[in-house]
Every structure is written in structure tokens, then in C-alpha cells.
UniProtKB/TrEMBL annotation:
PANTHER family, per the entry: HYBRID SIGNAL TRANSDUCTION HISTIDINE KINASE C (PTHR43547:SF2), TWO-COMPONENT HISTIDINE KINASE (PTHR43547)
Coiled-coil parts of chain: 738-783
Any GO MF annotation of the entry: phosphorelay sensor kinase activity
Protein name as catalogued: Signal transduction histidine kinase
Length: 1001
């Protein structure tokens, strides 16, 4: 009995660090844990919380759990943590000789021989003892503890200390009680032994007891001690209450942390307290993990006997309490007093100038008298919305109760002469229900209604609509300490009134500021804004920066249930939606309790570190440092942004962008803290992340490089080689083209030369032809002239002879015969002349330079057949002795005409003789010899024709004298480039030797 009284007294003497109801989060296999037994808890140097379980290791960043298991070990069951968190060397036990090393935010299998779980000393095995957790508790189990300067060996009946420097050992007799391990724990490089028989807690330094403490809670049989040497923390759990045990100023101090309802102490096996973030982590053997958030916010509810704890209008009552419309007085510890206000409205409460409390009933105002300790009241027929007292007058904002008289008006601004509210001095009517008003100066006043904001001139009674055409429902009008006027609305956000213009401030990311109830300003210039979803804090200076520069980003800090509220929904709609107490506390009404807090003691938590080291690439996780190497085949990359942060995740503001271009837009990162990339091309890319770390808009940045190697055909060297190959190929093509063009030019030149030559030849031929034609024309002119001259005489002779015959009357036979003979000879001469002329014309008409090879013998044979009959009449024989194999390509019709004329002459002038034709070929020259035995040609004619042949163009043709035959022959020979030699035979007859050129095709 005495011990229990001492224990109660001892507990009452503890400093109550955190006494309000906490916010508790429960985690198990249903929402993140791989197993429900949390063996140990630790925080690494980077700020991450680690949990050891029987199914892997878990990393917690305040937002999500990251489970590591499937290690190449025989078992995934892990127990306590040991090592040194500050040196980034945290170990946990696994199978014998192996365990896990948590280093650089990542666990990996490592040998633990340097940090063994078992050691051998003087042939005795010792198990590492660095926390309350052990493998098993059995008789004869020995333990060891490591410190910086020495080691303790703990046996059942003694304690041995070994100094690392001197290697000396000292013994101390103790009797450890083996219940969940030895009754010893370590803090601050000191060992504490709970001596149950002596009811003392002994402090042991270097193997010696140096001090003792009488702490009933530590030696209470119902107390469970949970400690961790690596965390340097010790906790006591007794009947659902968690205490911390600290050694400071040579004293062991016990502080109460929290009292939990309906819990079993024996289920807790691990504890970690994050004092910086005010988070208590409790690991259970069967129920997983509890995270308890401790806060300086206090939510006070009505007693259980009262209705639900929905609060609206409140008033400061004392320096640390408020009074509600029910007459109930509350401070941060709960209900203090109850005045028992009856039938009051929840939306109006205020003091008059004498300290009386005015509240509203259904249709009238009730004034509770301060003189009667607010027990008595008087009623007034008024429906007050807001009022204030100044210079002996009451300014009241009323809802019009006389709708039958003025149905078009719903609100009235009234100035009363005194407190009686019976003598109105001035009235100004409004068409909609008023909500709040504020006096700007001695003349002007702001009035907010459910639809507009008005500026009223009390001097002229003029009303100015400041909200314009837009409808806004005014909730509150606040003047800050710097004189700025701020307007809160229902659904339209917060405005600054400046120069009679409303300037809207930006929303928070969730747009909760749109329904802001009021603004409370603390001494540090922060605005506290309660909304329907959380409490927001922002510097007034930040809002003013936005007013000056609309591109400036305003950041709101949000507090929600995890900060200590019963609900996130605060209440507005009343004339007073929040109070500032004399002790510096703020009080806000909510849907479930009154929230008390000291704004100067509330700490805001911003993340401090940001890590980008994990990625999931095509559903495969990959870890990297500063540079991430990817393959071009990767379709989707998820980059994870790890941030150890243990407050409201809504306050984590992260933006990221891919690329370092100023035009690249920042993308907001959601609560999954993941940035997805797809179809990223090869090259070196920059991934930049920025995170807000303070109220004044300061950011920290993290940059990593994403390197995607190119395929070989995308590399620079390949492009260079390809470029030079292209140049080389282009060079070859150019060279080939130049060569081709040169060759083509040569061919064209040859073609041109050939064609030029042909053209020259043609021109030459044309010139020659022209000359020939000219000559022919000239010859023809001569011939025609000669023919005309020669034909005239015989024709005229025939005509005159015929006329003479007709004119004479006497005809004798001799005379007629003579005349007819003359006419016959002249006609025959003329006939032969025309026949020759016809042949000449036929040659010119049917002339062709193109000839085929033909047989000269056959040509002579054809002419022989033609002249055989005539020759036969003259008893003349024609002999064709031309070489039968001789083929010539001289113009056949021309040569035929030449041969015809020469044979004709020979046949005509040869009787009883022979005509012989012979041939001889010498190269291109063909010699055709025609020899007859006729009367022969006169030498005179031979000379004429020889001379004519040499100068046929200029000589006069004597056709009438010598006939036309040989003239024709000479003309034809000139056409084929031949010559004729006339020779008179020695005996008889004439020889014609034709010299011809046999031009091969």
C-alpha cells in the first residue's frame, strides 16, 4: 500500500510534457507493412525511419513504406538494430555470420564479423545486448555490451568490465533478473542496473557503481522497459502510459509522453521517439506499428453529458479561457464553468461597452449582466449581426425584422445614441442580409452582406458597391496591425481592399482558402486562416508580395487532424470566428471542439532533404547516384523523389522539370512523389527537382543527369565517320561525274567533230555540188543556147523548104526528090539530136550518187545485146572481153549512158569490122578500152574533144558541127570524175580509153 502511494505521488510529480489526446495512425499488413511484428525502430542520418520485421526491412519516409525483402539469406527474419546511425552504419541481425548493413539509405547483405552478435571470451559465449530485444530468455544466457572505451560482459551473477585501452578487467557482483532480458539499460555511455532487492537504480561507470536513484516507476514490476543503445533512448510503459527516461545533470528524469487507451503493455516490443517532429513510434509484436503525433494544439470537447461539441461564436472570458453561446467557459484543459445561457443562437456573441455579454435568441437580443455574474439577462427586440461602441454611440448591423413594412430591404446599418438601442440616430438600408462591418475612419464604413461589399459614407449616407457586378458573400472584415484591410468570403477566397478595389489573393493547392472564416494575426506577422478543411498559416508579407507581383507564388502551411484537431472543419458564419486571449493563445471553433494553441509555440515543419536515387524502369526497380543510365528501349521511366517528412504531406511542395531550358515548365509533384518520363531520346538530360523549405519561399534543388547512350549509328564518331565517308563518296561521285562529263564531252566533241566533219564534208559536197550544179547549169545554159541556135537553122530550113514547095506551081520529080531529101536529112538530124537530148535529160533526172556494186561485164553485155542487131546489119562483131569478176560501184546510169554513146558511135561508123571492149583494174582505177575498126575519127575532132575535156566550163560547144553524143559523154565523165582518151588507130578505127575511179562504199 505504501509503495502504491509513493508511486502515485511520484507520477504526479512528473512534468506533463504532452497531455492532450494524440493523433494516432495505425499500420499493419493491410496498409503497408510486410508483417505485423515490428522488432525494432531507428532513424538514420538521412532522416528515414527503419523498421525490422520477420518478413524484411521497411523504410518509412512519413508518406509511404518501402519494403526490402527477398535478400539472399536463409531467412528474412530480422531483429534489433545496432551500430552507429550517425556514421551511416546500421546493422541488423540475420542468419549466423551474415546480416544487413543499412548504408546510404539502402540495405544490403553484409558480413557482420566485425560487428558480431556472438563473441567468445575466456571460453564463454556472449550474446550482443544492445536493446530490450533478445533471441531468447533462458537460464545461463550471457550477454555483452559495447561502449566507446570498454565492454561489459554480463553474467547471471556478475558483471565484468574490460577496458579497451589497458585491457584490464574488473568484476562487479550483481543479480540480474532475466525477465525479457537483463534488468540493465544503457544511456549516454553509461550502464544502469535495476537492483530490485535494494529498490535502487544503480549507475555503473567503467565497472563501478557511481550513483544510485530511487525511481519507483523503473523498479515497478508492472513497468516494461524498452531501450535502444543505438538510439540512446529509454522508455517505460506502465498501464498504458508511455514515459521517457533521460539522464541529464547527473539525474535520471522520467517524463510522461502519452497515455493510451485499451492497450496491452506486453505487446509493445520497440519504441522510437522523434522529438524533432514530435512523433512517437510504437512497435507491437502482433498489431504492427502505431505512429502517435504529439502537438501543441489542444482540442477541447463538451462534457459527455452535453450535446455534440459543435462551436461557433465564442468570446475571451479570462486570460486563458473563452465563453460560448451556451454560457460554458473553457480553457485548454476543458470545461471550467457554466453560466447556463438558455435558448441562444450559435452565431452571435459579444461584449457591450460595460462588459455585459450580448447573445441572440430566435428573434431578440439577450444581454447577460456582468453585475449578476452573467446569470441574469434582459431582452431587446433586435436581430443583431454585428456591432461596436465608439465615442458614446453604438453602431449596429441589424437584420430587418419588419419585412412587412420594407420587404425590399433585408439589413440595416443603425447608429444608436446610447446602449438602449431605442434611439436610432441614423439608418441605412441594404437589400440583402448583412454579415460584418468595419469602421474605416470617422466618416466611412465597410459593410459586408451575403452578396456584396459596400462602402458607406456616414456623412452623406451614400452607398458604394465595391464588389461591382460580381456577387460575393462576405464572412469577415479584418484590419491587420499594418492597417491593411482583408476580406474573407464564403466560396470566393480572400481579398485585400486597396484604394477601394478588391484584389484577390491566390488559393492554396486544394482551394480550401476559398471558404476562409476569419484571419487571426500573431506577433510574428503570420495570418492564421481557419477553413472548412484545415487551418492555414501564411505571412502577410507574402500576400503583399503577390499583390505587387502576380507571378509571385504564395505558399500556405496547412495544419490538419494529425496536428491535434478532432476535425479538419472549422466553423464560421458567426460574428466572431476566433479569439486572441491575453495569454497569447488563439481559440478557434470547429465542428468537433474548441482548438486552443499558442501561435508562437506552434512549429511548422518543412522537409530538409530531398533524394532522387530510385527509378522504376519498365517495371524494374533501379538505384543510382547522381547519374541514371538508361537504354533507348526503355518505354516508361518513373523517377521517385524521396523526402523524409513526418508532418502534413500537403505542406510538401515539390516541382520538377526535365531539361535545363528556361522555357521548360515546372511540373507539380503529387503525393505519390513520382515523375514519369516516356520516349526519352538519347543524350544527356537534366532532371531538376526543387522543394520548398521555408515560409519565405526558399527552395532547395536537386539535379541528376539522365544519360541514354546512343546506338552506334547515333554516336558522334559514327556521324563524323559517316560525314567523311559521305564527303569521300561525294568526292568519288564528283570525280566520276567529272570523268563522265569529260568522257561525255569528249564523245560530244567527237560527235561534234564528226558531225562538224560531216557537215564540213556536206558543205564541201554542197559547195562541190553547187559548183557542179553551177557548171551543169552553165553547161546546160550553153547546151540550151547551142541547141536553140542549132535547132533554129534546120527547123527554119524545113519551114522555108516546105513554104517553097507550097509556093511553086511546077514540081518536077527531081526537084521534089531534092526538097524531100533535104527535109528528110534535116528532120533526121533534128530527131537524132532530140534523142540525144532526151538521154541527157534522163541522166540528170534519174541521177543518184548512191550506187551498189555491180558487174561491169554484165553492163557491157546488156549494151552488147542492145547493139548486136544493128551491128549485125553492118556485118560488125562486138567482142566483150571485160573481166567478168570485176565489180564496180560507179553510178550505173551515168556509166551506162557513156558506154551507150561510145558503142553507138562505134557501131554507127563501123562496117564489116569488129568492136572490142576490154577492162583493166589498177587499185581504185578502172580502165575501159573500146576499140573499133570503123572509119575512124578525124584528128580535128579528137583535138576538139580533148581540148573541150580539159576546159569544158569555158569552151564553146559545137553541137551543130560535131553532134551532141560526145559532148554528153564528156559532161557525164565530169560528173563521175572520169576521163576519156581519144586515139586514132594506126590501121583503122578509133580507140576510146575510159579512166574511171572505182570508189568503194
Amino acid at each position: 500500500m505504501k509503495n502504491n502511494i509513493l508511486l502515485i505521488f511520484f507520477l504526479l510529480s512528473f512534468f506533463p510534457v504532452y497531455s492532450q489526446k494524440p493523433y494516432i495512425q495505425y499500420y499493419n499488413t493491410d496498409n503497408g507493412l510486410p508483417q505485423n511484428s515490428v522488432k525494432d525502430i531507428i532513424k538514420d542520418k538521412y532522416g528515414f525511419i527503419w523498421l525490422s520485421t520477420e518478413n524484411g526491412i521497411v523504410r518509412y519516409d512519413g508518406n509511404s513504406f518501402l519494403v526490402y525483402k527477398n535478400f539472399p539469406l536463409n531467412s528474412q527474419r530480422f531483429t534489433f538494430f545496432y551500430g552507429n546511425a550517425e556514421k551511416d552504419s546500421i546493422f541488423t541481425t540475420g542468419e549466423f555470420g551474415k546480416g544487413l548493413l543499412i548504408h546510404n539509405k539502402f540495405p544490403r547483405v553484409a558480413s557482420i564479423n566485425k560487428y558480431p552478435n556472438f563473441i567468445l571470451n575466456h571460453n564463454t559465449n556472449y550474446l550482443l545486448y544492445c536493446s530490450n530485444f533478445s533471441y531468447a530468455v533462458s537460464s545461463g544466457m550471457n550477454y555483452y555490451l559495447n561502449f566507446k572505451e570498454g565492454r561489459y560482459y554480463l553474467q547471471e551473477k556478475c558483471l565484468i568490465y574490460e577496458d579497451f585501452h589497458s585491457k584490464a578487467e574488473s568484476r562487479l557482483s550483481i543479480r540480474p533478473i532475466y525477465k525479457n532480458g537483463p534488468r540493465v539499460f544503457a544511456m549516454n555511455e553509461l550502464l544502469f542496473y535495476i537492483d530490485i532487492p535494494s529498490k535502487k537504480v544503480n549507475k555503473i561507470e567503467k565497472g563501478k557503481i557511481t550513483d544510485s536513484y530511487d525511481i519507483p516507476l523503473l523498479r515497478d514490476i508492472n513497468s516494461k522497459i524498452l531501450w535502444s543503445q543505438i538510439n540512446n533512448q529509454t522508455f517505460i510503459i506502465n498501464k498504458g502510459t508511455v514515459y521517457s527516461c533521460n539522464y541529464h545533470d547527473k539525474q535520471l528524469k522520467i517524463s510522461k509522453i502519452i497515455t493510451l487507451d485499451n492497450v496491452k503493455d506486453e505487446n509493445f516490443i520497440s519504441v522510437y521517439f522523434d522529438e524533432k517532429n514530435k512523433k512517437l513510434y510504437l512497435g507491437s509484436s502482433i498489431d504492427g506499428l502505431q505512429i502517435i503525433s504529439l502537438s501543441d494544439f489542444v482540442s477541447v470537447k463538451r462534457p459527455p453529458s452535453k450535446p455534440e461539441s459543435v462551436f461557433y461564436a465564442t468570446l475571451p472570458y479570462t486570460s486563458s479561457s473563452v465563453i460560448t453561446v451556451f454560457g460554458e467557459v473553457y480553457d485548454r484543459h476543458g470545461l471550467v464553468e457554466n453560466k447556463g445561457f438558455k435558448n441562444t443562437s450559435s452565431y452571435f456573441l459579444d461584449y457591450d461597452h460595460a462588459g455585459n455579454i450580448i447573445t441572440m435568441g430566435l428573434q431578440d437580443a439577450m444581454i447577460y449582466q456582468k453585475a449578476g455574474s452573467y446569470k441574469k439577462s434582459i431582452n431587446l427586440k433586435l436581430f443583431l449581426k454585428d456591432f461596436f461602441f465608439k465615442d458614446g454611440k453604438y453602431y449596429a448591423l441589424l437584420k430587418d425584422l419588419r419585412n412587412n413594412q420594407t420587404p425590399e430591404f433585408d439589413g440595416i446599418l443603425t447608429v444608436f445614441k446610447d446602449q438602449s438601442f431605442l434611439s436610432p440616430e441614423k439608418r441605412i438600408f441594404f437589400k440583402n442580409e448583412p454579415t460584418k462591418f468595419l469602421q474605416l475612419d470617422a466618416v466611412n464604413m465597410l459593410v459586408g452582406t451575403t452578396k456584396s461589399l459596400y462602402k458607406i459614407s456616414l456623412k452623406t449616407n451614400k452607398i458604394y458597391n465595391l464588389s461591382g457586378a460580381q456577387q460575393i458573400s462576405i464572412r469577415n472584415i479584418i484590419r491587420s496591425t499594418h492597417g491593411h484591410v482583408w476580406i474573407t468570403t464564403a466560396g470566393k477566397g480572400v481579398y485585400l481592399l486597396k484604394n477601394d478595389k478588391l484584389i484577390k489573393i491566390p488559393y492554396d493547392t486544394e482551394r480550401n482558402i476559398s471558404s476562409a472564416h476569419t484571419i487571426l494575426e500573431d506577433k510574428n506577422g503570420y495570418f492564421w486562416i481557419p477553413t472548412n478543411n484545415g487551418l492555414y498559416r501564411v505571412l502577410e508579407s507574402e500576400l503583399l508580395k503577390y499583390i505587387q507581383n502576380k507571378k509571385y507564388r504564395v505558399h500556405y502551411y496547412k495544419y490538419s487532424k494529425d496536428a491535434g484537431f478532432n476535425t479538419n472543419e472549422f466553423n464560421g458564419g458567426s460574428n466572431i470566428c476566433g479569439n486572441l486571449l491575453e495569454n497569447g493563445e488563439f481559440v478557434l471553433p470547429s465542428l468537433n471542439g474548441l482548438v486552443f494553441f499558442d501561435p508562437l509555440k506552434i512549429k511548422n515543419y518543412y522537409p530538409e532533404n530531398i533524394y532522387v536515387e530510385r527509378a522504376v524502369i519498365d517495371d524494374k526497380e533501379q538505384y543510382f547516384k547522381n547519374e541514371l543510365y538508361l537504354d533507348q528501349k526503355s518505354n516508361r521511366i518513373d523517377l521517385f523523389i524521396d523526402v523524409p517528412y513526418y508532418a502534413n504531406s500537403d505542406n510538401v511542395f515539390i516541382e520538377a522539370k526535365l531539361g535545363n531550358s528556361p522555357n521548360t515548365k515546372w511540373e507539380h509533384i503529387g503525393k505519390d512523389r513520382k515523375f514519369s518520363i516516356s520516349n526519352l531520346g538519347y543524350g544527356k538530360h537534366s532532371f531538376i527537382v526543387k522543394m520548398l523549405v521555408s515560409d519565405d519561399g526558399k527552395f532547395i534543388y536537386k539535379k541528376i543527369n539522365i544519360i541514354i547512350p546512343p546506338y552506334f549509328y547515333q554516336t558522334l564518331w559514327f556521324k563524323i565517320v559517316t560525314f567523311f565517308l559521305f564527303l569521300w563518296l561525294l568526292y568519288l561521285i564528283v570525280r566520276w561525274r567529272i570523268s563522265f562529263l569529260k568522257k561525255r564531252n569528249q564523245e560530244l566533241e567527237e560527235i561534234i567533230n564528226s558531225r562538224t566533219q560531216k557537215l564540213s564534208d556536206t558543205v564541201e559536197k554542197l559547195v562541190t555540188t553547187k559548183e557542179k550544179l553551177h557548171k551543169e547549169v552553165e553547161q546546160q545554159k550553153k547546151l540550151i543556147g547551142t541547141i536553140t541556135h542549132d535547132i533554129t537553122t534546120p527547123v527554119k530550113f524545113i519551114a522555108l523548104t516546105a513554104k517553097g514547095v507550097l509556093d511553086e506551081n511546077n514540081f518536077n520529080r527531081e526537084r521534089i526528090e531534092k526538097i524531100l531529101t533535104s527535109i528528110y536529112k534535116s528532120s533526121d538530124q533534128l530527131y537524132n539530136f532530140t534523142i540525144t537530148l532526151k538521154e541527157y535529160a534522163d541522166i540528170y533526172t534519174h541521177r543518184s550518187d548512191e550506187t551498189e556494186h555491180y558487174s561491169l561485164y554484165q553492163l557491157i553485155e546488156e549494151k552488147k545485146i542492145l547493139f548486136n542487131e544493128i551491128a549485125g546489119k553492118n556485118n560488125t562483131v562486138i567482142n566483150n572481153q571485160v573481166d567478168q569478176s570485176l565489180l564496180i560501184c560507179i553510178s550505173k546510169n551515168i556509166l551506162s549512158a557513156i558506154v551507150h554513146n561510145l558503142m553507138d558511135n562505134s557501131v554507127k561508123y563501123t562496117q564489116n569490122g569488129t568492136i572490142t571492149l576490154e577492162s583493166k583494174a589498177e587499185g581504185e582505177n578502172i580502165f575501159l578500152l573500146i576499140t573499133d575498126t570503123g572509119i575512124g575519127m578525124e584528128q580535128k575532132k579528137i583535138d576538139y574533144y580533148t581540148r573541150l575535156q580539159d576546159n569544158i566550163d569555158n569552151e564553146k560547144l559545137l553541137l551543130q558541127k560535131y553532134g551532141m553524143g560526145l559532148h554528153l559523154v564528156l559532161q557525164l565523165l565530169q560528173m563521175i570524175g572520169g576521163k576519156i582518151i581519144f586515139k586514132k588507130n594506126e590501121l583503122q578505127g578509133t580507140s576510146f580509153k575510159l579512166i574511171l575511179t572505182n570508189k568503194k562504199r
